[in-house]
Structures
1.
Amino acid sequence: MPEWPKNEQPREKLRLYGARALSDAELLAIFLRVGVKGKSAVSLAEDLLRQFGNLPRLLACSPEEFIQVHGMGLSKWSQIQAAYELVKRSLEERLAQDSVFSSPSQVREFLQAKIGALPHEVFLCLYLDSRFHLIECQELFRGSITHTAVYPREILKEALARNASALVVAHNHPSGNPLPSESDQDLTKTLIKALQLVDIPLLDHCIVSGTGFFSFSDAGLMKID
């Protein structure tokens, strides 16, 4: 982008003002690095955002979908995916170092980055130690766009195998609506009762979408009759 004023070029703008000063398209342009004939890297980034609608959908797209956009190839898709994976790993490491209660926003950020944009449902278990630090995040079940079969016995087995002292579970709603269904509420009650048998508290059940988040704990729905 040599024709731009230097202080308006994305890399220079980032250096001078910090990453928060850049738009989504400008941040993407830094990874794309160069444009194509007649289009700057920023213009290409804007094309990507228009094609996929938002960042979560772009980050979750397949390589086949990505290369349908003019000027995009597997190399650029790989660069963006590598950066996205680094973000997810960084968030996971922070949960391993700090109690999940020290910053609930970290849990939300991690879960939304991990599963919020997926086109199918997955069910995660976050196994915690006695200080509520993350031992491991495991994708235990995977399903269709609208349904995932969850087996409490498997959750108990995996929690005991990791010597977990507490548990947070989460799943995503690809529909975009993070509000719990009746089956989600029934599952939560079943898991609470099952985990009580082995003295492992279920701290929360989180439902995630690309732009939404629901916490059973925040909503006061972790109590059972």
2.
Amino acid sequence: MRVLLSAYGSRGDVEPLAGLAVRLRALGAQARVCAPPDEEFAELLAGVGVELVPLGQPVRSFMHGATPPSAAELTRLRIAMVAEQFDTVAAAAEGCHVLVAAGLAQVAARSVAERLGIRYVYASYHPVSLPSPHHPPAPRQGWPPPPEGAGNRTLWDLDAQGITELFGHALNTRRASLDLPPVDNVRDHVFTDEPWLATDPVLGPWREPADLDVVQTGAWILPDERPLPARLMAFLEAGSPPVYVGFGSMRAPEGIARAAVEAIRARGRRAVVSRGWADLAVLDDRDDCLVVGEVNQQALFGRVAAVVHHGGAGTTATAARAGAPQVVVPQMVDQPYWAGRVAALGIGAAHDGPTPTAASLSAALTTALAPGTRDRARAVAGTIRTDGAEVAAKLLFDTAARGGPPGPA
């Protein structure tokens, strides 16, 4: 069996596909990944022996330029990506049996599968992106605020309308050139009636009843066997467990490193600060702080007192699996959801708003570092599933074996 896995986004979008590709290979399938051509993603996939098919422009240079991209610039990129997907994804999917698309940015993927006559699966990395009567859609940058008092179903209808207005013309123009019928509702066309949800059922549950027949596989985790750098190991062994601070691929809040270190010191703790795409740094040379680059979080988080982060799905799941209390400072999209789940599960604190101060982080750390939070985090860690990628890989084999006309699994 041959499978194409496609996503366009940050590391949190690409790494789960690498985890799924590795499990597919272990079961005897061939898998390649369509993803942005960032050097970090190329190294990640090459490190596990998975082929990268470059898709679009690098994400890091676009998202971390001198100024943040405007809503208009993001819109232009997204529309241009429709044509890019029809060309790149279609070429990469030749000879494949199944195409798996992750994230709404994959507007053209189902049309490609339809044209090639292969099976199609849509996957989400967080419940909040899928329409449900139990939650509203996440706010979309540049869109007008929703009507006051509107219910969830109304908000989801407006969300579908906005997505179709944004992508409908570009999508249907290319579909017409391929003799495919037009699509009236782009979002629901991309998602299908049976989307997959690649989240842990405890950490990110799907609530029923719902309009969609969601298949929850568990999170797609790429095992990381890399040793921690010697300098980091020496720092860990030189004192009590530190607090980790990292914002991954986000444009981190201005002054976050200084505020976090002040808050951590106020709690009598040491700090490990991850540079990330925001290039965080510590402004003094005291020996109670260490700045690190890309490291094995799976190994590190089991050795820290708490994890302060942006609330990406991957970081949240890794910290939860490690039993590390969390302070989530959500910035966008699904991150407020994960902050709320961390607080609801009692495994950490959700910061109120995206721009913390030393005082607000110190208060959140008081909750995260409390003995009861640590005990609860360790208890929840034992319930987190680690077989999501294997479950998904086996389901893909079943999907391919069914054969039949192209369409959702």
3.
Amino acid sequence: MIDVTYAQLHAWLVAFLWPFVRLIGFFMAAPLLGHKSAPTRIKIGLAALITFAIAPGLPLLPSVPVWSWAGLGIIIEQTLIGAAIGLVLRVMFSVVQAAGDFIGLQMGLAFATFVTPDGVNTMVLSRFLHLVTMMVFLAVDGHLVVIDTLAGSFQTLPIGYSGLNPAGFEMLARFGGTIFSSGLLLALPMVAALLIVNLSLGILNRSAPQLTVFSIGFPVSLTFGLFLLTVLMTDLGRFLQLLFEQGLTTIVQLVAALNPP
């Protein structure tokens, strides 16, 4: 007969629970599986599977009871770490969505929206660029790199109750500005070209009032915008490569910044 003591059960529970909480926090905030349309059972099952894979190689865990204030603090801490890593990925994918919004507004596609499964109105062009970015990210095995980085974060930022460095959250907030800077940088060529088209149509309307700018402006802007979008797609891969490198590098730097001094 095999006897299992309470200490052994508690050690097994701790070895599984705390890494599992960090992974759950990541899947809640990550753009791939954090979407509401992704089944909750898939998120929990994938987090449990990764936890079983990385648990044997984790550093020495603190001897803190799970049902205690210190244990609750560790659970909150691990959730914040996982959510912070997931938010970096969400910001990275939001860059192309912001670029799609900028381009869609200039092309006259602001009314072309549809309701996503999470109940948010999204521009068609923004959604299209987001799906292209997601497929490219999966094609280059970016999700595997993120999971490997997340597993390595337990070595850089081991599980404990020493607290987190606020400088890491400040770094995360500053990285949020990438949505506007990089998104505008991607959309700037098309926005500038379409602005010239709109100015030309305005001058044409003043010189020839019999031409109704509303009847010819939208078809011209939409046709020229689709042509420019075709040209933009030829260079989108290079932009996404730089964006993925920046995002993955930021994850590594964030984990290091969250480590208390």
4.
Amino acid sequence: MSSLTVGFIGYGNMAQAIAQGLVDAGVVRGNQIVACAGHFEKLQESTKSIGARALHSAAEVAAAADVVIVAVKPYLVEKLCKPIASELANDSTFVVSIAAGFTLERFAAFLPEQAHVVCTIPNTPIAVGQGVLVTESSDTLTDEQRELFHDLFHDIALIETVESSQLSIGGTIAGCGPAYAAMFIEALADAGVKHGLPRASAYRLAAKMVQGTGALNIASGTIPAAMKDAVCSPGGTTIKGVAELERHAFRGAVIDAIDAVEA
């Protein structure tokens, strides 16, 4: 890893989250990261905090990087990558796409057959080493590149491999979920404030509860229904709250939110 260069084509919020996560976890140093973006002065400011290097073009990133992370809006992917297709198809380089909706099949339409590509969808908690990287099961990486991909990301994200047809829904759950979870944290905190808790304390309690519940689920493999039942004593306080959530179609509302994104 000490000689690896990671390049970002596009350096928006998600790209910055990945870069921050990689540096904070000690996977790479800031000076091993290069990036380009539409507004160079803003890019210089964004890269300064971790010591990354701002470049002027996608071609410069492709020439400098061993791993090229395509982190632009989906409508820009072909426009930016097609002109540098030969550089991206270099044997010493592989591409990690984080563009929503982009699968290997779409890249195959404009990149040479020998290009090495893996398509993923990350989420923002990757910035603090608690992310998810939903990854398409089909890729064109070599075994060595696949191992490097794992080594690069496994310290900052759960790498969840899914079939190509499931990449969108997997990305929706992991990628949109932080917004819904944040709304839940905010609502719990508001309730705490309503009953007299200081807001900062209410936020910490709610956020840590969500973090811990997720960690317990991953560690134990217990289904969420069993975790809920373990907290719900007969006639107790928690089951009263659960019943109220059910009365307001809590689970149905969450499913409807996912359906709205996938429609």
